[in-house]
Structure formats: C-alpha cells, structure tokens
Amino acid sequence: MANVIYTPNDILEQEFKTKMRGYDPIEVDEFLDNVIKDYEAYNKDLLTLREENDRLKAKIEQLSKAQPAPSRVKEAAPKSSAVTNFDILKRLSNLEREVFGKKLDQQASAQASSSDLSQNYTQDENDIEKTRQF
User: Fold this and answer.
1) What is the pLDDT of residues 13-36, one digit of tens each?
2) Low complexity compositional bias: what residue ranges (predicted)?
C-alpha cells in the first residue's frame, strides 16, 4: 500500500471550505461515506488476497522441497541437506541386505545346489535311457 495517498480515516476527517455557491455539504458527506466503505472493502480484499498469495507461495515451497526434480536434486542438494525419503529407503535396503542377506544367500545357494543335483540326476536318467535304446 505504498502508493496510497488517502486512508479511510483521512477521507472521513477531511473538511472542505464552504463558499457561497458551493456543493451541498450533506451530499458530499454521503458520497465520501460511500467512498470510505468502498476503500475499506478494497483494503480487506487486498489483505485477503495477499494472505492467500503468501499461503500459496509457502505451499509451493513446501511441495518443491518435498518432491524436488531429479535433475535439481544433485545440483541443489548439498551433503548437509535434509534426508529425503529416497535416502531413507536406500539405507533401509542396505540394512536389510546386511541383516537378512546372509540368510538369503545361504538359502539361495542351498536351492541352487539342490536344483543342480536334480538337474544332474535328470541328465543321468536321460543318458541311461539313451544308452538303453542302442
């Protein structure tokens, strides 16, 4: 409101000099009362719009921090920045791999060896069957 010359109170307290053939003071006062009401309404609307604008800017800033663009993540996010969900998931995955990885590796190797044995056994049976045909 830097460009405002008159406040509603300035308009209300304005006094005009009377002359012999001047305007009707009652009519001027009524007009100025309506101008004051409009002026106050515009001020309320302006204040409401500024608050909404600030709220929306804060929301945009919050959302942009929550979901940064992938290309900007490497550039804008220094090492000391807040931990993101991706970092948390990555750390959790590494932790699970460390804790459960040994068990999974043992199970996988056991399954692989049993499947190798069954595969070898099946090949042996196929070889025996081919030999019988001759």
Assistant:
1) 888 777 777 888 888 888 888 888
2) 106-119
- Show Cβ contacts of residue 84 under 8 Å, excluding neighbours closer than 6 positions: 68, 73, 77
28 C-beta neighbours (distance < 10 Å), count: 13
Nearest Cα neighbor of 82 from 65, 70, 97, 59 is: 65
**Token code pair at residue 133:** 């045909």
Secondary structure (H, E, C), the chain: CCCCCCCHHHHHHCCCCCCCCCCCHHHHHHHHHHHHHHHHHHHHHHHHHHHHHHHHHHHHHHHHHHCCCHHHHHHHCCCCCCCCHHHHHHHHHHHHHHHHHHHHHHHHHHHHHHHHHHHHHHHHHHHHHHHHHC
Q: Under a CB-based contact definition with an 8 Å cutoff, are residues 48 and 56 in contact?
A: no
Instruction: Report the candidate in 99, 69, 66 with the shortest Cα–Cα distance to residue 84.
Output: 66
